[in-house]
Predict the 3D structure of the following.
Amino acid sequence: MQLSKETKDIQEQLGHYCQTGQLIKPIVGAKLERLPHYRRLVFNVIKDSLSSAYPLTKSLIGDEKFYQLCFAFFSTHACKEPQVYKMTGEILTYFKEHDVLNLKSEFPFIEELMLFEWTEMEMYMMADLALPKAKKSGDWLHDILVLNPESRLLDFTYPVYKVKPNQLLKEKAGQHFCVAYREKNTGKIYFIDVSPLVALIISAINTGNKLHSIFDELNQSGIKLNEEQKDKIVAFLKSESSLVLGFIH
Amino acid sequence: MIDLNGKVGLGFRRDLSEDLLTTNGFKPSFVELAPENWMNIGGYWKKTLDKIVLQYPVICHGLSLSIGSPDKLDFAFLKDLKLFLDQNNVHIYSEHLSYSKAKNAHLYDLLPIPFRQDAIKHIVERITIVQDFLERKIALENVSYYTPVAAEIDEATFISEIVNQANCNLLLDVNNVYVNAFNQQYNAKEFIKNLPLNRVKYIHMAGHEKIEDDLIIDTHGQDIIDPVFELFDFAIKHLDPVPVLLERDFNIPQLNTLQKEINALENICAKNWNLKHAAI
């Protein structure tokens, strides 16, 4: 490297100051009274981006705690992503390991709430996935059902995707499933609440199983569905035309 | 490839996408976008990007290359960048002569590089690598700064040495010259005359905000003030025609206000560059 150790150190000192607000020692040749503008401008990008990505979390814990969380994250975590919107996902990984404000004891669902918000953002922005070839008509029971590749089956302990954050404290821990998908024409992300049984079936469809085989396997494992229940499942799948894209005969 | 020299474009913001894609008479000659905001995306905004690329020539102005960084170059990022430029038919790619990453942490803003000889050598080496990798010349922008850091040489020499040694182009940000001349108390016109003007291939124009008696912040959030228009008029007298960009990132005004600024820039371009052509 052509850079001298001294110049490298100076650059890293300024970087460290912008990241943490802490000046280890005076930066050579810099007007000290001007440095806080850099810190402010850098931290504004972080605060604004995280506020846009996590509006529900911010509104739940309030501006002050939210900005403390942003500060704790940015000042101790080395952000890896060159794209700002992807940086906002890094706070989730950070938060799993560092609950410096002890937010999880006050809001046991907060990590899942943040995951829900990040999932929406990440799926909204993610690169397009090739649509598999599928026939528009077919047999719902005996053909392979083709699901939207831009969909995810999610499970939560708290129903963060359907209950307002300020009501979530009333919810007990449990098992909640939903399917998130990106609608092709609008690009909007939808979260559909599904029962554990439907979640199991969707998971099996995703691995290429036909519906009639899935029903048989459920039956063999002791989950006996009557015809009305099966019809309801088929009706649900039929109603979600942006989730079930077609058939492979 | 459409000749954009002497044409005036607009920085593309998502807030402006509907206006730019509808036929309401508002149509800058080209748009500039930050590849980092559009790389590796899909869905609604990818569709919007595709429409923009169909309707406008696109210039890219990057944010995360961090050419002056003490850290290693990020080749995974460069690979994505090259693909993006190629896929979207982008012929002009520029970046900032600054750094935004240190100790493997992205900082998401533009920090001033020490004006030093070792920094020049370091950056020249990196520009050469980047230009080879991207298989195109890049243009580097003179950035605004609010304090010099460990400077051993003057800013104009620092910039000139880098673009000359690296054989890259210069993006002349006229507002940044104005901001820096005010903040660091030097003569803006003398500064411009000391730059390698034969390497200027692109110009940025923007507004700024004076936040203290002796400090201006380069916000891109206000209208361009008359002294910056005057400096632009002065600068382009010394240049061959190049594309000119109006940057407006915040506090975006009504379209007619943006159009007036574009018209003002076009008039200054026409006055100087048409006369120059006529003389030739």
